[in-house]
Amino acid sequence: MNPTLSIIVPVYNVEDYLTQCIESVLNQKYQDFELILVNDGSSDSSGDICNQYANNDSRVTVKHKDNGGQSSARNVGLDIAKGKYIGFVDSDDWIHYEMYERLIKHALIHQSDIVACNFQVMKKDGSFEPYTKYAEDKEYNRKEAMAEIFKNEVLTFSPCNKIYRSQLFDKVRFIEGIILEDKDISYKLIDVSNKVSYIKDSLYFYRYNAGSTLRSAFSFRRLDEFKVQLDMYNYYKHKYKEVADLVYYDVFDIGSYLYSQIKKSGEDSVDIREYNYLIEFKFDILTRLIKNKQISIIKRLKLLITIISPKLWIFLRILKDNFVQL
């Protein structure tokens, strides 16, 4: 008989944290699951740790593969998953022992296609705080969830604090070879669901990683951010026009940030004109956003400066970044 839940853990060079992660899954109060460990070409002892657990626990399956990145590893896990629901855990994180019991129970009671919970975020000093202060459980239909997910506030881009009905992945997979693959897939999965639930309790623990791409010094890999956000805007523009302008704000914000970082780098080999596409703003949308009451005063001021003089806004953005570094 197939398990109710398949839990997929992509593994890459996490020997210091992997045992804690796996133990937190195997010690779940809810027991009707399979654990799929996808070793993504680790060069440390992570693969051996996976094998040890697979040899000692019939619920554990290990898949070893060449390194292809987190999206590739998750997709391999999806290919072999047998559960009615899918969950993901990052291999340097861990989960509350009641997390999957709570999520599965909520899904069955409310007939939810996706159930998310709040999560605890580790800060630089090792302490924790909840990601969101939103204090109520909430049920969303598809349209409501699509109007929430792009904010990354209550419903978040991460797949790791959630369970998904497995059929949602029939036509939707993680894009491989990019950063922000979580953001890219988040709204697409919601758009093929009918009901999304949120549980206010923090049941997932996210470990602080100073070396992540988004926390490290600027690199040109981060240009993926703009493409992912622009793809999101174009998706909303065609299917959810009523909130598409709000999605476009982040196209503006990410584009101006990336352009300012490239310009600030001052690399002789870089022709800044190649990146003008990052600041080819749609001024009609910026004008509408200034009048939108859902946009904060600070954001409206940024938009107003940009409409008056895009060059001034880029100058001020670089100035702000330099000041923060002092």
UniProtKB/TrEMBL annotation:
InterPro entries named among the record's database cross-references: Glyco_trans_2-like, Nucleotide-diphossugar_trans
Name listed for the protein in its UniProt record: Glycosyl transferase family 2
Keywords: Glycosyltransferase, Transferase
SUPFAM superfamilies given in the database record: Nucleotide-diphospho-sugar transferases
Organism domain of life: Bacteria
Domain Glycosyltransferase 2-like residue range list: 6-172
Gene3D superfamilies noted in UniProt: Spore Coat Polysaccharide Biosynthesis Protein SpsA, Chain A
UniProt-recorded Gene Ontology molecular function terms: glycosyltransferase activity
